[in-house]
Specification:
heterodimer; A: 199 residues; Rna Polymerase Sigma Factor, Chain: A; 2 domains; 9 helices; B: alpha+beta; six-stranded antiparallel sheet
Chain lengths: 199, 207
């Protein structure tokens, strides 16, 4: 097997990884003022991560770079649709990159376009307070994931980054399908428990 | 529309991760478009993706920042098709006018929807009181009710409800005795029917 390659940071915190509040401010400037400088900054932060995500999903470097550009251009075009209902900036950008990758794989009708395209679920002018609250949720989620048992982290990485189905994960790890599903459920419950007091 | 049957967390996680087979993703996506509850739940699973994206080791981009549309271009909204970007909901919105139903017999019609990716997808129309013979699944099955209602051992499903069944379940769904039912059914692998009646159904369901 691949051995111990789990890549979560040991000590996550608001200062590790993304500054989500800064990112939502950039998105707001793009949405409201079509601010190219804000876009450049967002691009420098997320472009290399989206590229890395797509390479993990199996894209070659050139395709990953293309789709990373496409993802960020979609962010430029749709910034007005961003709201806390879609999660933090990271969550929203992840969803767009995922959809573009699926479309590329299928080269057909965009079957999974809907969630990112939901105009009615968003307000054109998201309130800064709800975005700050959403960023706090995202930081807690990240911390909760970093504290999961390694077996549960492994399942999430194989699904989200390697793109394996639950059946494929079971085969890869040599465990029953039910075990994979229960690890997913436990990870979900830990994540929800970590934000309980915010609601 | 009051939705009472939702997608399971394993299905939502696979949808969020982008690993759900195409047929199942189409049905799940249609339900998510109709269901506020599942939309909110989906975001929880997408937050996991957001956290992983934050923590992935970045790979430098070789090209510069792409050219942007000229200032003053208004931000575009949802792609053409809006809420009906999902092909199943588009057919439903047109009241199935473009659907060429094929008669199977016993009060059942179907319309296969070819699509890329794994799994099979079809619309099924059942006359009032018609039933689908008992069957099991080699993999997951998602059924979204588009018109009327359907009942089986796992419960009663109305418009917008989704039956998210895994491979352990065997069932004999029966359409509403007054209104019948139109539903979209996705299977991870072709369905297995039992008994003699099964032979009748195998040729169409295994598409």
């Amino acid at each position: 097997m691949l051995g111990n390659w789990v890549s979560f940071r040991a000590v996550p915190g608001p200062l590790a990884g993304m500054n989500l509040n800064a990112m939502s401010e950039l998105l707001a400037r793009i949405a409201q003022e079509r601010d190219a400088a804000a876009f450049h900054e967002l691009y420098q932060s997320y472009g290399p991560r989206v590229k890395a995500y797509l390479v993990r999903r199996g894209a070659d470097a050139a395709t990953a770079e293309d789709l990373a550009q496409e993802t960020l251009l979609a962010v430029w075009r749709r910034a007005g649709l961003f709201s806390s209902a879609k999660g933090s900036a990271s969550t929203w950008i992840f969803s767009i990159a995922r959809n573009l990758w699926i479309d590329r794989l299928r080269r057909e009708v965009p079957w999974q376009e809907l969630p990112a395209a939901h105009a009615e679920a968003t307000s054109p002018d998201p309130s800064p307070d709800t975005l700050l609250a959403e960023n706090e949720v995202q930081i807690r989620v990240r911390a909760a994931l970093a504290e999961l048992p390694a077996q549960q982290q492994r399942v999430l990485e194989l699904a989200y980054l390697q793109g394996l189905s639950h059946g494929e994960i079971a085969a890869r790890l040599g465990v029953p399908l039910g075990t994979v599903k229960s690890r997913v459920r436990m990870a979900y419950q830990r994540m929800r428990a970590a934000v309980e007091d915010l609601k | 529309m009051t939705i009472t049957h939702h997608l399971g967390s394993e299905t939502l996680m696979s949808f969020a991760a982008g690993t759900l087979p195409g047929a199942l993703a189409a049905v799940a996506g249609a339900h998510i478009a109709l269901c506020r509850h599942c939309r909110d739940e989906l975001v929880w699973f997408e937050r996991i993706g957001g956290a992983l994206l934050d923590d992935v080791a970045p790979l430098p981009l070789t090209a510069g920042v792409p050219a942007l549309p000229a200032p003053g271009t208004p931000p575009s909204s949802a792609p053409a098709g809006g809420n009906n970007a999902n092909p199943i909901l588009r057919l439903e919105a047109q009241n199935f006018a473009l659907v060429g139903w094929r008669r199977i017999g016993l009060g059942l019609w179907h319309h296969p929807l070819p699509l890329p990716g794994n799994g099979t997808l079809q619309l099924i129309k059942a006359a009032p009181g018609a039933s689908v013979p008992e069957h099991g699944h080699g993999g997951a099955e998602l059924t979204l009710i588009l018109r009327g209602a359907l009942t089986d051992a796992t419960g009663s499903y109305g418009q917008g409800d989704v039956a998210d069944l895994d491979q352990e379940i065997e069932h004999t769904p029966i359409a509403d005795r007054k209104r019948g039912c139109v539903c979209a059914v996705a299977n991870e692998v072709p369905t297995r029917f039992h008994g003699l009646l099964a032979r009748l159904f195998q040729p169409w369901h295994g598409l």
